[in-house]
From TrEMBL:
Recorded name of the encoding gene: trmD
GO MF assignments: tRNA (guanine(37)-N1)-methyltransferase activity
Family annotation (HAMAP family): TrmD
Domain of life: Bacteria
Record-stated family: Belongs to the RNA methyltransferase TrmD family.
Binding site for S-adenosyl-L-methionine: G113, I133, G134, D135, Y136, V137, L138
Name assigned to this protein: tRNA (guanine-N(1)-)-methyltransferase
Length: 254
């Protein structure tokens, strides 16, 4: 998977993504990350890439030419015309499902805006997708691009050491992840649940599924609509809902 980031702050995205798991995946050649400095495509002698908005108003707008030139150069280098995702709070909100869809692409371009935004014509000409990371406004698209690249990368085979962990974690099957424990067995008076020490794999698996269902009901009940539960698990969920309604076994407050 090859990620290309069109940005005015290449050191920001490369610094973040060269660290930890994505950094290791880059070293191993499983993913590549290239930051293209839009400023390198300015034809202005002062390397300007922005100007005042027509019609007036505060702030500066990124001009279309350097952005389009940067994209065309990228197409010429890769021999393809990859999807271009524009980072904007006006876009569809990024989800695990969108990440799974994007992980099937071989090349992806992330276009990061700054200042008051990007000249609409650049977006008309190159943007194929508009994505947001949530209903709040950031100063630029770099952090959203890093969030999305991190999320997509961990779905690329070989990026995580443990192949199953990408599947089992939160949101797989629309259920949140079960609680995890490691040594020591008792910490500050709190013991690891007995079943996890039993070595009985079937019971452990059942306990973990039930914990996932319980947790999802407590923290993100909206996800349960899309969960794939067995008949037994459905019964367990109904039991939990009944308990909630009658106030029995108050859900924990973590
Ligand atoms: N640019 C500024 N805010 C953003 C957000 N929430 N998501 C994506 N891009 C952005």
């Amino acid at each position: 998977m090859n990620f290309h980031i069109l940005t005015l702050f290449p050191e920001m995205v490369m610094g973040g993504l060269s660290t930890s798991i994505t950094g290791r995946a880059m070293e191993k050649g499983i993913i590549s990350v290239e930051a293209v400095n839009i400023r390198d495509y300015s034809k202005d002698k002062h390397r300007h890439v922005d100007d005042a908005p027509y019609g007036g108003g505060a702030g500066m707008v990124m001009q279309p030419e350097p952005i389009c030139d940067a994209y065309e150069d990228l197409c010429a280098r890769t021999g393809r015309r990859p999807r271009v995702i524009y980072m904007t709070p006006q876009g569809r909100v990024f989800t695990q499902q969108i990440a799974e869809e994007l992980a099937r692409e071989e090349e992806l371009v992330f276009l990061c805006g700054h200042y008051e935004g990007i000249d609409e014509r650049a977006l008309e000409l190159v943007a194929t997708d508009y994505l947001s990371i949530g209903d709040y406004v950031l100063t630029g698209g770099e952090l959203p691009a890093m969030v999305m690249i991190d999320c997509i990368s961990r779905l690329v085979p070989g990026v995580l050491n443990n192949e199953v962990s990408a599947e089992v974690e939160s949101f797989h099957d629309n259920l949140l992840e079960y609680p995890q424990y490691t040594r020591p067995e008792v910490f500050n008076g709190l013991a690891v649940p007995e079943v996890l020490l039993s070595g009985h794999h079937k019971n452990i698996e059942k306990w973990r599924r039930e914990q996932s269902i319980r947790r999802t009901l407590e923290r993100r009940p909206d996800l349960l609509k899309g969960a794939n539960l067995s008949k037994k698990e459905q019964k367990y969920l109904e039991e939990l809902i009944r308990e909630q309604e009658t106030g029995e076994n108050e859900p924990d407050s973590h």
